[in-house]
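Shipment paperwork, digital attachment
Item: protein structure file
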Amino acid sequence: MTDDAMPPRRRSRGAGPAGETFQGTGDASGLAFAVVVSRYNEYITSRLLDGAQAALAAAGAARVDVAWVPGALEIPLAAHRLARTGRYAAVICLGCVIKGETLHFDLVAQNAAAGMARVALETGVPVINEVLAVFDPAHAAARAGGTVNRGAEAAHAAVRMATLLRVLPGQGRSRSGRRLRTR
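Attachment content:
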C-alpha cells in the first residue's frame, strides 16, 4: 500500500498508549480548489499559478477556479469569500512581496499571512499561504520555477490538508457549526 492510500490506523509508540494516526493523501479526485493570485509582481505569481494548476491537474482535481486580486493584502478577503461558499476543499493563496527600502515589505507579508491564517480558522477550510516574501527578484524567480515551484508545493499541501480534514474526527463543520462541503 502506498503512502497516499494509507488509511488512519492504530499505532503504538513504545511504552505509551496506542492512538490513531491521521494523514491526507495526494489524491484530489472529485475535489474543487480555489486559487487566489496577486497581480502585483505578476511575472512571478503567474509562474506560481502555472505550478499550482499543473500539480492540481496531476493530482486529479475536478475543478480549479482562479481569482486575481491587486496585491497581497487583498488576498485574505478574496480567500474568505471563496472559503465561505462551501464549494472548495481548500484555497491556495499565491503572491510575491519583494523587499524594498522601507518597512512596507514586512507589513504586507505579515498582515497577509495573519489574514490567511484567520480565514482558515474562521471557515474550517484549509488556506495555503504561498505569498513569497523575498529580498530580491532573483530569489523570487528561483522559487517560481527556477529550482522549485512554490505554487506546486502549495497545491500539494492543499490536497494533503483537504484529504486530511475528510478523515479527522469532528470534520465537516465550521466554528459556527455550519456544514462545510468538500466538493
